[in-house]
Amino acid sequence: MSAKTLCEVGTEREKSDSEFRQYDTEANPRLAEFYRSNHERQTLNDVLDKEKQYFGLTRGKKSVCEAAEYLNTLVDDSDPDTDLTQIEHLLRTL
Q1: Mean pLDDT for the chain?
Q2: Is residue 48 scored above 80 in pLDDT?
Q3: Residue from 74, 84, 87 nearest 11 by CA
Q4: Nearest Cα to Cα of residue 23 among 83, 80, 75, 76
Q5: Less Cβ crowding at N or C end of the chain, within 10 Å?
């Protein structure tokens, strides 16, 4: 996908309700198993541990632009609904 200007982000055709969030477990059984397993095994202690790990804001400082650029290096294989880059998704949700 080519980079879009800020004005072009979000101009894709909207999906109908029947097209939205259609996870095809046969197309990606590894992903389906990952979610099934994690949801089944997650405990309150797991959540509290993640809160301690991330809510302390001890991982360094970034400007908004630096944080957005870092976010754009990540790949979310679990979201079948969009081919947008992370920064395009960020701008669209703003």
Answers
A1: 76
A2: yes
A3: 84
A4: 80
A5: N
Domain that holds residue 29: 23-59
At how many degrees (to 10) do helices 86-93 and 64-71 cross? 130
Asked whether residue 8 is assigned to any structural domain, the reply reads: no
Binning the chain into helix, strand and coil, the percentages to the nearest 5 are 45, 0, 55
Q: Are residues 28 and 53 in the same domain?
A: yes
Which DSSP symbol is given to 40? H
C-beta of residue 60 within 8 angstroms of C-beta of residue 79: no
CB 23 within 8 A of CB 32: yes
